[in-house]
Amino acid sequence: GSTPQHAAQGSTNTSQGASGTDVLVQLKDVNKHFGDLHVLKDINLDVHKGEVLVVIGPSGSGKSTLCRTINRLEPIDTGTITLDSQPLPEEGRPLARLRADVGMVFQSFNLFAHKTILDNVTLGPIKVRKMKSADARKRAMELLERVGVANQAEKIPAQLSGGQQQRVAIARALAMQPKVILFDEPTSALDPEMVNEVLDVMVSLAKEGMTMVVVTHEMGFARKAADRVVFMADGQIVEQASPEEFFDNPQSDRAKDFLGKIL
Ligand code: ADP
Ligand code: MG
């Protein structure tokens, strides 16, 4: 595997854990079907602490399903997935903790529509992390400040632009102090003029050493922020390489074809 570039920068979450490995998420021989459809085929993938992994590939290739298996929104048929060397829990409180450790930012924002922006960010920490309300609010305001929407704290999501809502979704994920954040096409539903305000927040998280798995078609982001690019097609990992290698010298016909269509 590759050594994440961020590992040298000494951020707190790139150190080796008690398990003595810097692999945070590991998928081994993972297979998943939806009925007759084989959507994940023998997936083997390590995500290292502090690494930014960008997943690209055609629509329907299994990118969202791959993300969703990592926080067990989708169960797998065969194979194993570990977080910090521990198998994913299947239910109950351990599963709730897993979901807190594995943040997720979706294409469609998925904020609680009838709660204020501030409540959207404090609810998880209070309920799952058992944080005191005052502490959760203080931390939430800091995070909203950081993503540039602190002045919207008392509004509800519908009163915000898509770009603002997605930045709130990132603040909400960060509030849980996750070990890794999964981004599933976080800018695909945004008007073009709002894409960069979200990508800028993601680039800054990447620079700070956050472990991130990012499904995106934003090749500029991939070049700028990715430590590694994984190319998926038809349920398989077809290629993985540094962004420079992948974009400048793709190996497989499928990757060449895909890049030819989007670049
Ligand atoms: P991608 O994110 O790369 O576009 P997905 O992971 O969403 O791909 O989907 C992979 C394949 O699995 C597609 O053929 C899709 O139609 C199918 N699929 C995804 N979710 C479900 C589901 N809940 N039930 C049945 N088929 C699904
Ligand atoms: Mg998808």
Tell me about this structure.
By secondary structure, the protein is of the alpha/beta class. It contains nine helices and ten strands. The strands form two sheets. A six-stranded mixed β-sheet has the order 6-7-8-3-9-10, sandwiched between helices. Strands 2-1-4-5 form a four-stranded antiparallel β-sheet, with helices on one face. A hairpin with a 2-residue loop joins strand 9 (228-233) and strand 10 (236-241). Helix 3 crosses helix 4 and helix 5 (162-175) packs parallel to helix 6 (192-207). 43% of the residues are buried. Adenosine-5'-diphosphate binds at residues 34, 37, 39, 57, 59-65. Magnesium ion binds at residues 63-64, 184-185. It is found in: Cell membrane. Keywords: Amino-acid transport, ATP-binding, Cell membrane, Membrane, Nucleotide-binding, Transport. Residues 1-19 are annotated as: Disordered. Residues 25-259 form the ABC transporter domain.
